[in-house]
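Our consortium's second objective concerns turning raw sequence data into structural hypotheses that experimental partners can test. To show how far this objective has progressed, the report includes one record in full. It was chosen at random from the queue rather than selected for favorable results. The single chain below, 362 residues long, was entered without modification.
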Amino acid sequence: MANDAENTERSAAHLVSVMAPCRNERSYIDAFCDQVLAQQLPPGWALELLVADGGSDDGSRERLERRAGQDAPLVVVDNPGRIVSTGLNACLLRARGEIVVRMDIHTSFAPDYVAQCIAVLKQSGADNVGGPWVARGEGAMSQAIAAAFQCRWVVGGALSRDTAYEGPVDTVYLGCWPRAVFTRIGGFDEQLVRNQDDEHNLRLRLSGGRIWQSGRIRSWYQSRGSLPKLFAQQYQYGYWRPFVMRKHGQPGSLRQLVPALFVAALVVSVAAMPWSLLPVTALAGSYALYLALASWSAALGAGKIQGKSSNDDARRSMAPLLARLPLAIASFHIGYGLGTWRGLMDIVRGRRVSGASAKITR
């Protein structure tokens, strides 16, 4: 098998490098490797898969090394930093392809994902391309979280959730780059535990680069399965946002500041309660109305994505979804907003990293 793969690579005119960070992913790593190595490539292309292991202790590393001995295109890379940015940079140091594609172990990919990345990169002339960020859930709460994740009311109109959009964006899910982009602007910021992709895309745009989204590049992200995990994820994203802003003097987009403003308004309203109930009542009423409208919109969107066969099917699935959506949406906003303020406080205090905030959770 190894000789066949080596012969294929030698006969190919082009090589694409796929990279993915990994830590303790024993339940997912085989399925991920299978779908990457089975990608349908354009004629004349070969693929190498680089997986950066961040000190797995659940057997993931052993599985990867066993497969690397069987599948010549698979390379296991050490990631002593144990975070996404150091893992991606470790892969970049070993990557030999003229095009680099980032993939995620908890995401499912269409069989032509890499081929479409290559095609869109060529046709758009952009410096980074990717597809829409589409979430799927397993279980009732995970499905509610996925529906909230997909709703533009919840994410501030982010184009990344629009499956029909084709065109320039400020950031894109995962990404595919000509190798020359990393030579020009560098790799990922290893000071960032989260948001390293947003920072890299912002740096790319500030250097005059273009980012392009296409619905032809299809993938399906596995959403978090519980509210505590969702809250922790959004808290981490919010926490690292101010560090990106400090580096570049601006956010990636203004919508990223809205959760922090909401949390600030909530705190001010509660603080005013001894003198007047009006501020907290007005804010609570407004947010309750927003939650109702956003939840309805998210539930309708989820029904369209799932393609319900009848109105009865849609109604039966909507009731439990609507019951969970307000909690999921509030977890998105409050988690992100609190994380942003904690990050700002740590910057003001001269702290670069909050220990609790730096911990990575799935």
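The partners drew two points from this record. The two ends are 34 Å apart (CA to CA). The CA atoms of residues 85 and 191 lie 8 Å apart. Both points have been shared with the crystallography group to help prioritize constructs.
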